[in-house]
Amino acid sequence: MDYALAKRSKLAEVRAGRVSVDEVCDADPYLLRAAQFHGLGSEQACPVCRKEQVTLVSWIFGKSLGRASGSARTPAEITRLAARTGEFSVHVVEVCRTCRWNHLIRSYVAGLVPAAEPHRRAAK
Protein backbone atom coordinates (compact mmCIF):
# COMPACT_ATOMS: atom_id res chain seq x y z
CA MET A 1 0.00 0.00 0.00
CA ASP A 2 1.27 3.46 -0.86
CA TYR A 3 0.73 6.34 1.57
CA ALA A 4 1.59 9.21 -0.81
CA LEU A 5 -1.84 10.85 -0.47
CA ALA A 6 -1.63 10.86 3.32
CA LYS A 7 1.86 12.35 3.12
CA ARG A 8 0.74 15.11 0.73
CA SER A 9 -2.22 15.89 2.97
CA LYS A 10 -0.02 16.13 6.08
CA LEU A 11 2.48 18.39 4.31
CA ALA A 12 -0.35 20.63 3.04
CA GLU A 13 -1.59 20.98 6.63
CA VAL A 14 1.91 21.99 7.76
CA ARG A 15 2.29 24.55 4.98
CA ALA A 16 -1.15 25.99 5.75
CA GLY A 17 -0.24 26.32 9.43
CA ARG A 18 -2.93 23.91 10.67
CA VAL A 19 -0.27 21.49 11.95
CA SER A 20 3.01 22.62 13.52
CA VAL A 21 6.38 21.45 12.24
CA ASP A 22 7.08 20.08 15.73
CA GLU A 23 4.11 17.72 15.37
CA VAL A 24 5.46 16.10 12.20
CA CYS A 25 9.17 16.32 12.99
CA ASP A 26 9.00 14.05 16.00
CA ALA A 27 11.12 10.99 15.16
CA ASP A 28 12.24 9.32 18.35
CA PRO A 29 15.89 8.45 18.99
CA TYR A 30 15.28 4.75 18.21
CA LEU A 31 13.99 5.63 14.72
CA LEU A 32 16.94 7.97 14.14
CA ARG A 33 19.40 5.21 15.14
CA ALA A 34 17.60 2.73 12.89
CA ALA A 35 17.95 5.21 10.01
CA GLN A 36 21.67 5.47 10.68
CA PHE A 37 22.38 1.73 10.89
CA HIS A 38 19.63 0.03 8.85
CA GLY A 39 18.38 2.79 6.56
CA LEU A 40 18.72 3.12 2.84
CA GLY A 41 19.63 6.51 1.42
CA SER A 42 17.32 8.09 -1.12
CA GLU A 43 17.49 10.82 -3.74
CA GLN A 44 14.49 12.66 -2.28
CA ALA A 45 15.11 15.80 -0.25
CA CYS A 46 13.32 16.16 3.06
CA PRO A 47 9.94 17.76 2.30
CA VAL A 48 10.13 19.87 5.47
CA CYS A 49 13.69 21.19 5.90
CA ARG A 50 15.18 20.35 2.46
CA LYS A 51 18.64 20.10 4.13
CA GLU A 52 19.31 16.43 3.35
CA GLN A 53 17.87 13.44 1.56
CA VAL A 54 15.48 11.30 3.56
CA THR A 55 16.55 7.86 4.68
CA LEU A 56 14.19 4.90 4.21
CA VAL A 57 13.84 2.56 7.18
CA SER A 58 12.05 -0.78 6.82
CA TRP A 59 10.36 -2.30 9.88
CA ILE A 60 9.24 -5.93 9.90
CA PHE A 61 6.28 -7.43 11.76
CA GLY A 62 4.84 -10.94 11.92
CA LYS A 63 4.43 -14.03 14.09
CA SER A 64 6.73 -16.04 11.83
CA LEU A 65 9.63 -13.70 12.71
CA GLY A 66 9.65 -14.47 16.43
CA ARG A 67 11.77 -11.98 18.36
CA ALA A 68 12.80 -10.21 15.14
CA SER A 69 9.26 -8.85 14.77
CA GLY A 70 9.17 -5.11 15.34
CA SER A 71 12.75 -4.50 14.29
CA ALA A 72 14.34 -2.44 11.55
CA ARG A 73 16.10 -4.38 8.79
CA THR A 74 18.06 -3.58 5.66
CA PRO A 75 16.60 -4.52 2.26
CA ALA A 76 19.17 -7.35 1.98
CA GLU A 77 18.10 -8.76 5.37
CA ILE A 78 14.45 -8.58 4.35
CA THR A 79 15.20 -10.48 1.14
CA ARG A 80 17.00 -13.24 3.10
CA LEU A 81 14.19 -13.47 5.65
CA ALA A 82 11.54 -13.57 2.93
CA ALA A 83 13.25 -16.58 1.33
CA ARG A 84 13.14 -18.68 4.50
CA THR A 85 10.38 -17.30 6.74
CA GLY A 86 6.62 -17.34 6.69
CA GLU A 87 4.59 -14.32 5.69
CA PHE A 88 5.34 -11.00 7.38
CA SER A 89 4.64 -7.33 6.77
CA VAL A 90 7.15 -4.61 5.98
CA HIS A 91 6.51 -0.94 6.77
CA VAL A 92 8.80 1.58 5.09
CA VAL A 93 9.22 4.92 6.86
CA GLU A 94 11.06 7.92 5.47
CA VAL A 95 13.00 9.88 8.05
CA CYS A 96 15.10 13.03 7.99
CA ARG A 97 17.98 12.80 10.43
CA THR A 98 18.32 16.61 10.46
CA CYS A 99 14.81 17.86 11.29
CA ARG A 100 13.33 14.51 12.49
CA TRP A 101 10.53 14.40 9.86
CA ASN A 102 9.13 10.87 9.53
CA HIS A 103 6.23 9.36 7.67
CA LEU A 104 5.05 5.90 6.68
CA ILE A 105 5.33 5.79 2.90
CA ARG A 106 4.69 2.16 1.96
CA SER A 107 3.75 -1.23 3.39
CA TYR A 108 3.80 -4.66 1.80
CA VAL A 109 3.76 -8.38 2.58
CA ALA A 110 6.88 -10.52 2.16
CA GLY A 111 7.88 -14.07 3.05
CA LEU A 112 6.82 -17.51 2.06
CA VAL A 113 3.11 -17.87 1.46
CA PRO A 114 1.79 -21.13 2.92
CA ALA A 115 0.79 -23.64 0.28
CA ALA A 116 -2.95 -24.02 -0.10
CA GLU A 117 -4.32 -27.30 1.14
CA PRO A 118 -5.69 -29.51 -1.63
CA HIS A 119 -9.45 -29.67 -1.79
CA ARG A 120 -10.78 -32.87 -0.34
CA ARG A 121 -13.78 -34.59 -1.74
CA ALA A 122 -16.68 -34.77 0.62
CA ALA A 123 -17.49 -38.31 1.73
CA LYS A 124 -20.73 -39.62 0.27
From TrEMBL:
Pfam families documented for this protein: DUF5318
InterPro entries from the xrefs?
DUF5318
| Protein name, UniProt field | DUF5318 family protein
Q: Which organism is it from?
A: Gordonia caeni
